[in-house]
Amino acid sequence: MPNYRRAKLPGGTYFLTQVTHERQPWLLGKIGREALRTAIVQVRQKYPFTIDAFVLLPEHFHCLWTLPEGDSDFSTRLR
Fold it and tell me: How many other β-carbons are positioned within 10 Å of the β-carbon of residue 42?
């Protein structure tokens, strides 16, 4: 696994991008959007964060998330 160097600031705001498998445009459809929305709700219940901005495109999304004070674990939320 690569050893990425990332800044981790507890309670920080992070710019994140997530791409669909093989860049398939499944986020265009209602089922894909609803699946993503459901996943985000479930993750936020277990690992709280604030969504400051969100841009949804057919095969990826960009977002700004702010984590709670003392928390810098953004990567668990993206799994």
Answer: 10
